Amino acid sequence: MTGRRGALIILEGVDRAGKTTQCTKLVQALRARGRAAEMMRFPDRTTKIGQMISLYLEKKINLEDHTVHLLFSANRWELAPLIKKKLEQGVSLVVDRYAFSGVAFTSAKPGFGLEWCKNPDVGLPKPDLVLFLQLSPAEAARRGKFGDERYERTDFQKTVLQRFEQLMKDPSVNWQVIDAARSIDELHQEILRHSEAAIEQAANQPVAELWN
Predict the structure, then answer these.
(1) Residue that wins the pLDDT comparison between 158 and 145
(2) 26, 191 in Cβ contact below 8 A?
(3) Residue 191 falls inside a structural domain
């Protein structure tokens, strides 16, 4: 035990914005600076729930939309105890997608409101920092492998981006919008700067609950 808790740092954005690359680089940089850091990603496709989600995203099975949303939330909840444990041990977690993606993607479908989509995730560990990698859906579509998975359609991604913009109006969450159209290294340096500040600020604070 370090006596100083780790920070929960989330990277969000439309598909192909570079989140996974930046998560990996951030963890490596934090470790190089002597900080305990680990990467997580959602959905976590290694669990039973995650395996079902993976089949759905790869278009191998079809599921009803409410069911899909609740499965994504359940996938986060099954790892919530581990998240809290790691943070309390002083490990900073860098997470590729979180509840915000779940809300943005489901509420982009017809018939779903933001509040209904948020409810299943109320009480999850609250992030200390949410870095939104801002990239136009048109630019994202030009990047490699776009279209491989279910939601990688430009028209749908535009609606997802609008939902993210609504979520970013919430002052209770520490959002930082980052221009993801720049070089990987430029992007990394800004992400690292924001993350180091969040880690210092989180060190002596208890883990809060999201949207509570």
Answers:
(1) 158
(2) yes
(3) yes
By residue range, what is the domain housing residue 130? 8-202
Residues recorded for the chain:
212
Q: Tell me the pLDDT of the chain averaged across its residues.
A: 92
Q: How confident is the model at residue 153 (pLDDT cuts 50, 70, 90)?
A: confident
pLDDT over threshold 60, residue 1: no
Q: What is the CATH number of the domain that holds 103?
A: 3.40.50.300
Domain count along the chain: 1
Pick the residue with more confidence: 144 or 25?
A: 25
Residues 6+ apart with CB under 8 A from 86: 6, 38, 93
Q: Is residue 113 part of a domain?
A: yes
Residues 79-93: pLDDT tens digits?
A: 999 999 999 999 999
